[in-house]
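> call design_seq(struct)
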């Protein structure tokens, strides 16, 4: 019995500012499973007072339900940050409005979560803002993300491996067979699957997405196949499973590598027979469902290690697509950055921003462990705090500090940002814009030595200065 207080003292502590007892109990239970101890403040005044207590001084994070202070949520965030600047704050909200997220982040919030919040999403957000071995703010992925345009034109990139994957996906989309998409977290697998469904013969039929990371293992059987009343404790009503719901349509299964062996066998049997049997049912029925599935790790490796059913992997992977990580296609970063900034600029409370060559060189020098999703988060954070019309290298201070001399080398490397030939919608850019980019790149590469710039471009100095004037280029750029 003496161990319990010590375990509590050693636990990370999160303050939940919430006046709903039911939600307080739920979040306390979820956080406890990951080693967190929760203290609850029902209002803003209590929360501020608790900062000065013994427990308050040991806080690792704050969860703030926006409805407690209401319209004063941002003011409360700012007050909490003024008292504890290093303490990360996450806002819980029922609003998916980017404007509220922007205002909360400008007030000092590290992240925001839209309710209802799944246990995995909540813990992922807490782990992200309290990890000590990486920068917490600038490079931390946002829990919520902007909705994506669901077609192949929104898949930005010219790297051969990426274009090959898109071509394979576009061809597979026209068929009816199951498809497996493999790739690291954040490479765009779900976005590609949505695009495939939209381009498929089943585009007008039912679509359902199940992310196995967000569903408790004990509920997956019921979520997929449904259940009968009384089939297990708490099963009071009949539930229609995802397979039955999507009959004739498409079922997207995200992170299939998380399935337990028993569920793998159950799914393999269903695909072999075409018969779906709800939990607790004495009957089964036939459905026509196309599966698009993803895996963050190679299923072949899991099969070889005895961690994944070989038959299921073969059925799912008849068509297999691999999305490369962003570090293998750094030449796509300028186009991705401009595309994301164009979309970010459309969000309420944010401006349309350009991005300098120096900033693009800095972004290209990082290896992006979170891939495209992390790049989007980093650009969103930078846009929130940008006070000018353009993102520069100074907009990413933590990234500059991490990369050190690498960032300087990248900006002078002939492999740096390059010249983008395509607009974000996949069309060629106007020749005048490409020419202007080439001249700017040359001026930066040769550090403003205009004689050398003209010589390397194969034109005379007078021609160069005329082009600078015609194209509106500042030769100090």
């Amino acid at each position: 019995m003496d161990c319990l207080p010590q375990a509590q003292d050693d636990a990370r502590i999160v303050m939940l500012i919430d006046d709903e007892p039911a939600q307080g109990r739920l979040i306390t239970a979820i956080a406890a499973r990951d080693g967190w101890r929760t203290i609850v403040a029902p209002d803003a005044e209590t929360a501020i007072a608790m900062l000065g207590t013994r427990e308050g001084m040991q806080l690792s994070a704050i969860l703030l339900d926006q409805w407690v202070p209401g319209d004063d949520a941002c003011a409360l965030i700012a007050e909490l940050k003024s008292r504890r600047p290093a303490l990360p704050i996450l806002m819980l909200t029922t609003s998916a409005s980017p404007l509220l997220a922007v205002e909360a982040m400008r007030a000092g919030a590290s992240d925001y979560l839209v309710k209802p919040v799944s246990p995995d999403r909540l813990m992922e957000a807490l782990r992200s803002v309290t990890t000590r071995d990486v920068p917490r703010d600038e490079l931390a992925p946002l829990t919520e993300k902007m909705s994506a345009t669901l077609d192949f034109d929104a898949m930005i990139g010219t790297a051969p491996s990426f274009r090959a994957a898109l071509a394979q996906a576009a061809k597979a989309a026209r068929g009816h067979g199951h498809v497996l998409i493999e790739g690291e977290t954040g490479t765009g697998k779900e976005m590609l699957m949505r695009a495939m469904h939209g381009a498929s013969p089943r585009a007008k039929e039912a679509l359902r997405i199940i992310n196995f990371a967000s569903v408790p293992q004990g509920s997956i059987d019921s979520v997929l196949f449904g259940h009968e009343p009384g089939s297990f404790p708490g099963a009071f009503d009949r539930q229609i499973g995802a397979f039955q719901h999507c009959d004739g349509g498409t079922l997207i299964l995200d992170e299939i590598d998380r399935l337990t062996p028993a569920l793998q066998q159950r799914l393999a049997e269903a695909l072999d027979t075409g018969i779906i049997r709800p939990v607790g049912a004495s009957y089964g029925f036939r459905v026509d469902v196309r599966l698009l599935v993803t895996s963050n790790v190679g299923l072949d490796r899991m099969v070889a290690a005895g961690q994944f059913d070989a038959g299921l992997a073969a059925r799912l992977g008849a068509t297999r697509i691999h999305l490369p990580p962003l570090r293998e296609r750094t030449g796509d970063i300028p186009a991705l950055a401009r595309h994301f900034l164009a979309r970010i600029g459309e969000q309420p409370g944010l401006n349309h921003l350009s991005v300098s060559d120096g900033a693009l060189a800095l972004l290209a020098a990082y290896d992006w462990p979170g891939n495209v999703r992390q790049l989007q988060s980093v650009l969103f954070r930078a846009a929130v705090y940008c006070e000018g019309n353009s993102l520069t290298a100074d907009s990413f201070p933590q990234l500059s500090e991490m990369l050190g001399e690498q960032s300087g080398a990248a900006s002078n490397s002939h492999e740096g940002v390059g010249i983008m030939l395509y607009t974000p919608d996949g069309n060629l850019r106007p020749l005048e814009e490409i020419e202007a980019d080439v001249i700017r790149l040359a001026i930066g590469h040769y550090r403003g030595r205009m004689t050398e710039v003209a010589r390397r471009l194969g034109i005379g100095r007078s021609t160069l200065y005329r082009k600078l004037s015609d194209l509106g280029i500042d030769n100090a750029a």
